[in-house]
Design goal:
β1 and β2 form a beta hairpin. The chain is mainly α and 322 residues long. It is flat and about 70 Å long.
């Protein structure tokens, strides 16, 4: 005689409600509805870029007479737009190849210099005890509220006339010209990037475990050794996040380049200056504007996608303790 056990009672799983407000918000943002909304926002955000990409490959007549969505009913592609905007010989063409190199020459040092200076300053303000350290940090933090436009004229006078107080010449005029104007742009971008960079990296470096620092000091490591061997590997996500922000700001900058690099003409001006000229003087040549705009977007997209994992880790670092 066989006996059958009664089916086990199904116990409903009770959803645990987070005890903190941050946990409840995180739970709502990870729901299916929030995921669908995020996907829809991403699609709507991507549509203009997708249309710009398609338009950059369409013939000039098609761009001027029809919308980019008509491409799917009559697909026609050409590389003439990119060839004209990059290597065109006429003055009305883009000729962006040289300006593209200028943008790289401006952007790469203008990213590396602030990253190096800000990381050193943030470590000093976080782990080196000296008199007035807190006041120095507060002053650096307060500099973030100073509008960039207020510093342009004094900085330009500093380059062109030097510094003079009560008739005493403290620093001479720089007297830079041609390719030397790149130094002015690097200096300006570095100055404008320091307050935010020091503030951002200080928040990460100050949260590093004190036990690691004390163990390194017990082993005889000095501050340069600690910074090089311990701090730099641990703050790589933060450096990558700050590097992405700074790269995008410098690459897309127009105002600083117009003021400090315009004297060198085509030899020093970045792509943003040339694109502004095309939009102002050749606004009816849509095929050049679309291809030129997408050329300017390629490098930032490559930088962001290649450092995306560090960028996400850098944004999340320090948000959860324990």
């Amino acid at each position: 005689m066989t006996t059958t056990n009664p089916p086990a009672a199904v116990v409903p799983v009770k959803t645990i409600r987070p005890s903190t407000a941050a946990g409840r918000v995180r739970q709502k943002l990870s729901s299916r509805v929030a995921t669908v909304i995020a996907i829809l926002i991403a699609l709507f955000w991507t549509i203009p870029t997708f249309g710009l990409l398609i338009s950059s490959f369409r013939p000039a007549n098609d761009i001027k007479t029809t919308g980019w969505w008509t491409f799917f009913s009559d697909p026609q592609l050409t590389l003439d737009n990119y060839n004209e905007v990059l290597f065109g010989g006429s003055a009305s063409s883009g000729q962006l190849a040289g300006y593209f190199i200028n943008s790289l020459v401006i952007t790469i040092p203008a990213v590396l210099f602030p990253m190096a200076i800000c990381s050193l300053a943030a470590y000093a303000l976080a782990w080196i005890d000296f008199k007035g350290r807190d006041w120095v940090y507060i002053m650096i933090f307060a500099l973030q509220i100073v509008p960039l436009q207020m510093a342009l004229v004094p900085l330009l006078r500093f380059f062109s006339q030097g510094t003079e107080i009560f008739g005493i010449q403290l620093t001479p005029a720089w007297g830079l010209s041609d390719e030397g104007l790149f130094i002015q742009v690097w200096f300006a971008h570095t100055c404008f990037a320091l307050p935010f960079g020091v503030y951002l990296l200080h928040n990460f470096i100050s949260e590093l475990p004190r036990d690691i620092m004390e163990a390194a000091r017990v082993d005889g490591a000095n501050h340069p050794k600690i910074f090089r061997s311990i701090v730099l590997p641990l703050i790589t996500p933060a450096l990558a996040s700050y590097g992405i922000f700074q790269f995008l700001w410098v690459w897309n900058d127009l105002l600083v380049a117009l003021i400090f690099a315009s004297g060198g003409g085509r030899d020093t001006q970045p792509m943003t200056v040339r694109l502004a000229e095309l939009a102002g003087t050749r606004g009816n040549e849509w095929q050049r504007l679309t291809s030129g705009a997408f050329v300017s977007m390629v490098v930032p997209l490559i930088v962001f996608l290649s450092l995306q994992r560090y960028f996400v880790r850098g944004l999340l670092a320090g948000s959860v303790k324990g």
